[in-house]
Design brief:
It is a single chain. The protein is an alpha/beta fold and 284 residues long. The protein has two domains: 128 residues, Quinolinate phosphoribosyl transferase, N-terminal domain (Aldehyde Oxidoreductase, domain 3), CATH 3.90.1170.20; 108 residues, Alpha-Beta Barrel (TIM Barrel). 42% of the residues lie in helices and 20% in strands. The strands form three sheets. The protein has a six-stranded parallel beta sheet with strand order 6-11-10-9-8-7. A four-stranded antiparallel beta sheet has the order 3-5-1-12, covered by helices on one side. A two-stranded antiparallel ribbon has the order 2-4. Helix 9 links the parallel strand 9 and strand 10. Helix 1 crosses helix 3. The model has no long low-confidence stretch (mean pLDDT 96).
């Protein structure tokens, strides 16, 4: 099971989301729902999906009303069929209705990423290449979205600018050469940080390799050039394919022999999963 990240960041995110949606109060629920009305609601999948985000959804409801009981009915990361109940929720109806949209926003977004990632990862099953995400994430949501990617069966690239050196085209535009950029990065980095260099042609690849880069990103190279790059490197560095990667290209890129395939679509373009909440009974 993929471990859920630490809570402090997400508590701030949930608080912000509730402040945005609820503001000074849920005027509709306050007008229509008696404070003592109790009820049960179900979160149900409307499509086949990979479940991600149940802990966050539960936290949303408990922040609104600590007496609300949130009971997951499936495990995080499981593939489930349309119609499956993901969780049962019981307690004050007012809290259920006030938290509905915020909880669904988290659950639909994260399950959508996990579902799309699982589909993409299945396209290169059996190959030696690993599918990885990027930093093209929703501001503030990065750790959650990368968690959903892991549940979907792919791996994470660096978390941020602080945990890996990646010398990209704009860095190189300000540097004298790939060689100098790698040397400077090495001087300013501790020994546990790997250095990755983005290249756009085979000449850049050879220079990055000679300079000692541990990972080389092949940016927008076609599959024929990727195969040549794999032969040139011969295992002396990790090769990452990046740029214009989609479902159609994935199997062809994996077949070139690269080690990693980074795909921004995993987080920036995954469609939200179709999940709804329905109140199924009430009592006092």
């Amino acid at each position: 099971m993929t471990a859920f990240p630490a809570w402090p960041l997400f508590d701030r995110l949930i608080d912000l989301a509730l402040e945005e949606d609820v503001g000074a109060g849920d005027v509709t629920t306050q007008a229509l729902i008696p404070p003592d009305l109790q009820g049960e609601a179900h979160l149900r999948a409307q499509q086949d999906l990979v479940v991600a985000g149940l802990p966050v959804a539960g936290r949303v409801f408990r922040k609104l009303d600590a007496s609300l009981v949130f009971e997951p009915q499936v495990e995080e990361g499981r593939e489930i069929a349309a119609g499956t109940v993901l969780a049962r929720l019981s307690g004050p109806v007012a809290g259920i209705l006030t938290g509905e949209r915020t909880a669904l926003n988290f659950l639909q977004r994260l399950s959508g990423i996990a579902t799309f990632t699982r589909r993409m990862a299945s396209l290169i099953e059996g190959s030696a290449a690993a599918l990885v995400d990027t930093r093209k994430t929703t501001p503030g949501w990065r750790a959650l979205e990368k968690y959903a990617v892991r549940l979907g069966g792919a791996r994470n690239h660096r978390s941020g600018l602080y945990d890996g050196v990646l010398i990209k085209n704009n860095h190189l535009a300000a540097a004298a050469s790939i060689t100098q950029a790698v040397q400077q990065a090495r001087q300013h980095s501790h020994h546990l940080l790997k250095i990755e260099v983005e290249v756009t042609d085979l000449a850049g690849l050879e220079e990055a390799l000679a300079a000692g880069a541990e990972v080389i990103m092949l940016d927008n190279l076609d599959e024929a050039a990727m195969k040549k790059a794999v032969a040139i490197v011969a295992g002396r560095a990790l090769l990452e394919a990046s740029g214009s990667i989609n479902a159609e290209r994935l199997p062809r890129v994996a077949a070139t022999g690269v080690n990693l395939i980074s795909m921004g679509q995993l987080t920036h373009s995954a469609p939200a999963a179709d999940i709804h909440l329905r109140l199924v009974r009430t009592w006092k």
